[in-house]
Amino acid sequence: LHYDFFVIHSAKDAEWVNYTLLSKLEGEHCLKGCIADRDFQLGELVLNNITESIKQSAKVLIILTPNLVQSRWCEYEMKTAFHVSVEMGTKSVIPVLL
C-alpha cells in the first residue's frame, strides 16, 4: 500500500485537516496520508483518483462535520470507501467527529 491513510473531508474543513490533522499524523507520527488537493494525479479523472487512492490506503479517515454532509464529492468518497472496504476485506473506515 502506498498510503497509511486517506482523508475524506469537506473543502470547508481543509484548514483543520492540513494544519492540525496532517501535522499531527504526518509530522509527529511519521505516517503517510493522502488528501485530494495534494496527492491526486494531475490529468487523471477525479473519480479514478478517489478509487485508486482509497485502494492504496491502509485506513480511511472520514472527518465528520456539518460541512461533510453538504458535499456530493464527500458522499461519493464515503460510498467508495465503504465499497472498497467490503470488496477488498482489508480496509478500516474510521470516523473522526469534530
Automatic annotation (TrEMBL):
GO BP annotations listed: signal transduction
PROSITE patterns, per the entry: TIR (PS50104)
Q: Which Pfam families match?
A: TIR (PF01582)
Residues in domain TIR?
A: 1-98
Matches recorded under SMART domains? TIR (SM00255)
The record's listing under InterPro entries reads: TIR_dom (IPR000157), Toll_tir_struct_dom_sf (IPR035897), TTC22 (IPR042342)
The name of this protein is: TIR domain-containing protein
Q: Tell me which species this is from.
A: Branchiostoma floridae (Florida lancelet)
